[in-house]
Design goal:
The chain is α/β, with parallel strands linked by helices. 26% of the residues lie in helices and 25% in strands.
Length: 255
């Protein structure tokens, strides 16, 4: 089970409230949650990560907001259950991938950032190719959270990795796309799973601030929106050979 960007305390509370239901219904072997917006809407802290782990996550992925909370740098370095984009600078705190045991398999979880309209240190296509070579049999299945802005790059990454990884799931836009599918080579793909946050605002922030910023072009301090929180993500069925047979979207109101 993969859950998209948890936005602020409404997102964390929505996740905590909904996860018992999702776990009982689907009995996932592995739960991966994107937490790049967990702390007040930008970044993550040790405390907000603990809340996500307590809800059932085994691994937390991040994105372009990974280092917004400086206090979390030590935590990102220390905790192997948290991954930030692989193709950020090697000087950045934390790691780009990790391996967890789930369902009798060694599953590699990779966080990768798109290069179009986002700042990266390396081209994501080259970075993931190099990593897959470096892994060399250390994982039975590979999950990739591709945190990227534009749909073209996200669809392209699915094709690039088809037949080589279990899943390529997009995050970052906070808006779910209607294209979950198993590619011909056996890789589950979705352009974006969406977010875990309020649908009452704009991408999880209160609409008044977002509208003011877009109307005036002036800087505005965004506040996290709290109404109409949904959990968005997907469920993927992975075979023993590390490829996938099924991907299903999760789009669930929390109240
Ligand atoms: Fe996000
Ligand atoms: Fe992002």
């Amino acid at each position: 089970m993969f859950i998209g960007d948890v936005v602020g305390s409404p997102g964390r509370e929505g996740l905590t409230a909904t996860m018992p239901l999702l776990r009982a219904e689907h009995k996932p072997d592995l739960i991966i949650v994107n937490g790049e917006n967990a702390a007040g809407g930008v970044g993550i802290t040790e405390q907000t990560a603990e809340e996500i782990f307590a809800a059932g996550a085994q691994v937390i992925t991040l994105g372009n907001h990974a280092y917004r909370q400086r206090e979390a740098f030590g935590f990102l370095n220390a905790d192997e259950r948290v991954v930030r984009p692989l193709n950020h600078s090697p000087e950045s705190p934390g790691r780009g991938w990790t391996i967890v045991e789930a369902g009798g398999m060694r599953v590699a979880v990779v966080n990768l950032s798109g290069a179009v309209q986002l700042q990266v240190d390396r081209n994501p296509f080259a970075a993931i190719d190099e990593l897959l070579e470096e892994m060399d049999g250390r994982a039975d299945a590979v999950f990739v959270d591709f945190h990227a802005e534009v749909t073209s790059e996200k669809v392209a990454m699915g094709w690039h990795l088809d037949g080589r990884v279990a899943a390529v799931c997009g995050t970052h836009t906070h808006v779910p796309t209607a294209d979950p599918r198993i590619l011909p080579g056996g890789t589950a793909h979705i352009t974006d799973v969406g977010m875990t946050g309020s649908r009452d605002g704009v991408l999880g922030v209160k609409r008044a601030g977002a509208l003011e910023s877009l109307r005036t072009g002036l800087p505005v301090r965004f506040e996290t929106a709290g109404e109409d929180v949904w959990v968005m993500g997907c469920l993927i069925e992975v075979r023993d050979d590390g490829l996938s047979t099924r991907i299903e979207q999760i789009l669930l109101p929390t109240a």
